[in-house]
Amino acid sequence: MKILQKIEDRCIACSACEMACSNAYFKVKDREKSAIRITEHGQDKRIHVCNQCGFCIDICPVMAIKRDALGVVRIDKKKCVGCLMCVGFCDASVMMQHDEFQEPFKCVACGICAGVCPAEALYIDKDAAQVPLEKVTFFK
Amino acid sequence: MEIKAMKEARTLLTAFDYEPAPLERGYTDRSLHIRLGENRVEARAVPALVREKFIGGKGYGLKLLWDAVKPSTRWNDPENAIIVAGGPICGITQYPGSGKSLVCTISPMTDMPIDSNVGGYFGPYLKFSGYDALEISGKSEKDVVIFIDGNSGRVTIEEAPLEAVDGHVVAEQLTEMYAEDEEDKKNISIICAGTAAEHANIGLLNFSFYDLRRQVARLKQAGRGGIGRVFRDKKIKAVVIRFRGTKGNLNKPADQSRINKAGIKLHRQIHDLDDAQCRMRQIGTANIIEVMDAYDLLPTHNYQYGSHPDTYKIASKVFIEKYTTQGMPDGCWYGCSLSCAKTADHFELKTGPYKGHKVTIDGPEYENAAGLGSNCGIFDPEIILEANFYCDTYGVDTISFGTITAFAMECYERGIIDKSHTGGLELTFGNAMAQLELLHQMSRGEGFGYHIGLGVRHLKQYFAEEFGADRAFLEDIGMEQKGLEVSEYLPKESLAQQGGYGLTNKGPQHDEAWLIFMDMVNNQIPTFEDKAEALHYFPMFRTWFGLMGLCKLPWNDTTPADNGMTDEPAKIPEHVQNYVDLYNGVTGASIDKHELIRQSERVYNFQRVFNIRMGKGLRVHDAMPYRSMGPVTAQEYLSRQERYDQQMKELIGVDPEGKSVEEKIAIVRAYRVDQYEKLTDAVYKRRGWSSEGVPTTAYLREIGMDLPEVLEVVTPLQA
Amino acid sequence: MIQVNGKPMIWSEGMTVASMLKEKNYIYAKIVVKINGVFIPVEKYESTFIHDGDDVKAIHMLAGG
Question: Which of the residues B338, B486, B522 would you substitute to probe the C interface, choosing the one with the greatest number of C C-beta atoms within 10 Å?
Fold first, then answer.
C-alpha cells in the first residue's frame, strides 16, 4: 500500500515539510495545519505522520473514513460529523485536528513534503508492507 | 410494496410549515406544540425566564408539563403531555454521551411527573430542526404518525392504520419509508412504543438510531415510569424526525475549541484506559454483573439475596464470548467513544410471535441481566437476551418487569398465589418460559401478564383484595416506592443507597445517586451528615445531565489515570471541569462547578414541588419497603446470620446469643428503620426542606426558584 | 489486625495487597489502594506487603451505578 515513509535520523527539523503540507491543503504556512509534524528534543528528531494503518476506519461512526484503491486512508469530509473520535483513538496521534476546521485531517501520502525535504528524510513507498488494521465489519 | 400500501392508507390530518429557527449557542429558543385530536400544531418562543430558571432538557419538560396539567390530571387525561427535550449541550458531537433526550409526562405508575433519559438521534435532530422541546398533548381517535421534516420545516400528522406497533418492526418500516436511500437512513430517528404499551402501565418509549454497519434501526429506551403507555393511549404509533446535514458545529457554540479539547482528551483517556477499567467498549454496563455478585449486591430472588452460585452463567464474559459482536463504535449518538451500546446479532428467537426470526438485540445491559435474570432466579443468557428483545419491541420497561415478576414469583413460591391465580403458569424462580409467557400475555393485554404489567403496587392490592394475601407482608417484600419499581441493586447493607433510592423525586431509580461503594465498601461517608451531603451533591450533580441532554456514563464509567490522587475522587473533578467547560463553551456563559449545582437545585426543587402539587412528594411518600433495608424473612436472616449477629453486637449493642430468629429480625428492623428515619431528617435538612419534606420558602428564594406558582404550592405547607 | 477502609481485618503473615484484595473478594477494576496514606500502584500489588497494624484504604471508584 502507498505510504509516506520516513527516515528519522536524516531529519534536520527544518519544517519545510510542515510548511509545504499546510500550504498545499490549507493555503497557509502553519505547522498546526500540517498533516506531518516534526518534534525535536535536542538531537532526537521525530517525524509524526500517518502510516495508513487504518485503525481509524472502524472508529468512525459514519463510515467517513475509507481506504482507497492505492491503500491510502482518506476522510470523506462531506460525511464526517466532526466527532474527533478518530483523533483520540489514533495510536500514533497523527490524525490531526485544528479548531478552525470541522473535520480532522491526515496524511494522504501525496508526496509533496517528500519533494521539498532537503534531507531526503521522506519518500513515497507505493508498495509498503503495512498490515491494514481495519476490520470493516458488516453484519448483513 | 408493503411501504407503498402503508403510504396509500395514510390520511393527512394536518400539516404545519415553519421556518427552522437557527441554533445559537446551544438554543433555538423555540418549542413545538402538537395537540392531538384537535390536530393543532404551533411553534412558540421559549420565554427568557424559562431559559434562565429551567436551562433545558428535563427542566423544560417539567416546566411545560406543569403548565399543561392540573393537580387532578391523571396519565390518561387528554391534557397530559409528553415532552421531549434535549438541552443546550445536546447535539454536540465531540464529547461522549451528548445526544440524550429527556422525556417527561404524568406517569401511570406514580400519578406524578416522571422523567426518563434516552439515547438515539431524536434529541439532537429536534434541535437541528429548530426546537428545544417538543410537547404532545391531546388524544387522537385513530392511530397517527407525526413527522417532522427538519430541513424543509414541515410537521405533519397522518392517520396511519397499517404500520406495525411493535418497536423493532415499526422502526424499520418508518426508517425505510422516510429515507430516500440507504445513505439517508442515518438522518431518521423514530420514537415508538410497542404492543404491550397499549395494556401495561410499565410501557416504555423506544428512540431509534440507524446503525450504518449493521444496517438496522436500533432502539434505545426511555424506560421508566410508563411513558409508552401514555404515548399509545394518545394513539401515537410513532414520531418520526428527519434531519440531513449533521455536522459538529450545529449548536453554534461560543467556543468550539474548548469543546474540542475536552472531547479529544476524553476520547484519548477512553482509548488508553477503558480496557483496564470498566470495559465499556467491550461489554458496556454488563461489566458489573459479576462485580455486583461478588459484593453481595446483585438482586436475587426478589432482592432476598445479593449473590447466587449460578451468576457465572450470566457473567459479562459469557455475553462477550458467545453473543455480542464487536469491532466498531457502538455509541447511541455521534462521538460517544465510550460506546456502551452492545448488540447480539442474528439472534434466533425461540418464543412468541417472532419465533424463528433472526433479530438484532440491543443489550444486555446490567439492569436487564439483573432484573430479567438473577432477580427472577434465571441464569440463562439466551433467555435474558430473548426477554430483553421482547421487552424492547413490546415497549416494556425491563427494570419494572424484572422487579414485578420477581415479586410475583416470590409470592408464588410462598404460596400467596398459586396456579389458579396465574392462569396455570408455574411461577417459580427460574422458570424462564413462564417469564416470557407473561411478556407475550402483556403484549396482548391478557391473563396474568396483564396484571404484571400494572406494577407491584397494583399486584399488592390485587393479591390482598382478591386472594386474601397478608397486605403487610406484601408491603414488606414488594419492591416499589411511589408506585415505581426499585432498580436492580440490593441496598440492604447501604443506608446511603436506601436514601439514594427512597429520597428521590420520581421513585426508586439509581439515576440520582449510587452510593453503595462509597458507603458500604469504602466507608467514606460514615455519619448521617456525610451521607446527607452525598445525597445532596450527587442527585444535584446528576440532575444536571438531564438539563443538558447528557449521559452520565462518561462521567463515571471512565476515570482519569490520576483521579485517585485528587481531593474528591468520587466526584471525578477533572470530568466535572470538562462539563463546566462544555457548558461555557457551548453557551458562552462562565459558570463554575458551584453554579452547575445551583442550576440543578432549582429544577430538582421545582420537581419536588410539582410532586407536592400532584398530592405526593412528602415524607410519607419517601418511605421504603423493608425488603430494601434488611431481612424480612427468617431465610434471609439465616443466609447472612453472621453479618447480622455481628452488627447486632457492634452497632446495636444487643447480644444476639439465645435470641430467636424472629426476635433478631425485629431488633434489626427497629434499628434499621430508625436509621432510615434519621437519614431522612439529615437529608431534608441538607436539602433545605422541612421535616415533612417540603422545600422551605426561604430556601426556594435562596436558590432562585421562588416563582409565584411554586410558592403558592408550598406556602400553606410551611411548618 | 489491620484496618481496611476503617474496618478491622485479621492480618496474616506474608499478606500482600494482592492477597488482601483477594481475601476481601474485591474484584472491581477501579480500586485505589493506599497503605498508611501512601498510594500503591497496581503493578506493585503482588510485591507490596501489608504489615500488622497498617491502615489500608481500598477505595472503589464508582459513584455511578
Answer: B522
Longest Cα–Cα distance of chain A, Å, equals 53
Question: What pLDDT does residue B218 have?
Answer: 95
**Residues near B635 by beta carbon (within 8 Å), at least 6 away in sequence:** B304
Scored b (16 or more CB within 10 A) or e, B261-300 reads: bbbbbbbbbbbbebeebbbbbbbbbbbbbbbbbbbbbbbb
Taking the mean position of all CA atoms in its chain, how far away is CA A50? Answer: 4
Q: Please spell the DSSP secondary structure of B571-639, one letter per residue.
A: G-HHHHHHHHHHHHHHH-----HHHHHHHHHHHHHHHHHHHHHTT--SGGGG---GGGTS--SHHHHHH
CATH topology of domain A3-125: Alpha-Beta Plaits (3.30.70)
* Domain locations along chain C: 2-60
Beta bridge partners of B159: B11, B144
* pTM assigned to the model: 0.96
Which residue reads 416563582 in cell numbers? B707
Cis peptide before B364 (omega within 30 of 0): yes
On whether the C2-60 domain is CATH 3.10.20.30, my answer is yes
**Closest by Cα among B251, B219, B213, B324 to A65:** B213
State the burial class of residue B541 (Cβ atoms within 10 Å of its Cβ: 0-12, 13-18, 19+): buried
For residue B326, the model assigns a pLDDT of: 64
Residue B549 C-alpha cell reads as 441532554
Are A14 and A119 in contact, with CB atoms under 8 Å apart? yes
Cβ–Cβ of A138/B345 closer than 8 Å? no
Q: C65 vs B565: CB contact, 8 Å cut-off?
A: no
In this structure, chain A runs to a length of: 140
Evaluate whether B492 touches B629 at the Cβ level (below 8 Å): yes
Q: Set out the domains of chain B in order of their start, with CATH numbers.
A: 2-242 (3.60.9.10), 274-485 (1.10.569.10), 495-558+591-717 (1.10.599.10)
Predicted complex ipTM? 0.96
- Strands B205-211 and B358-362 turn out to be unpaired
- Answer whether C30 touches B (CB < 8 Å): yes
Mean pLDDT per 10-residue interval, chain A, length 140 residues: 96 97 97 97 94 95 96 97 98 97 97 97 94 76
Using a 10 angstrom Cβ sphere, with 0-12 exposed, 13-18 middle and 19 or more buried, the burial of residue A86 is buried
B521–C64 C-beta distance less than 8 A: no
Residue B426 and residue B450: Cα distance in Å, rounded? 16
Q: What is the 3-state secondary structure (H, E, C) of B203-218?
A: ECEEEEEEECCCCEEE
Q: Count A/B contacts: CB-CB distance under 8 Å.
A: 89
Where would I find the H helices in B41-108?
A: 48-54, 58-68
Return the closest-CA partner of residue B79 out of B44, B38, B47.
B38
Closest C-alpha to B491, from B505, B476, B501, B482: B501
The pLDDT value recorded for residue B567 is 87
Contact B73, B79 (CB under 8 A): yes
C38 CB within 8 Å of a chain B CB: no
Cβ contact A76:A60 at 8 Å: no
Residue of C nearest to B292 (CA): C28
Long-range Cβ pairs for the range B700-703 (8 Å, 24+):
B700/B605, B700/B609, B703/B598, B703/B601, B703/B602, B703/B605
pLDDT at B364: 80
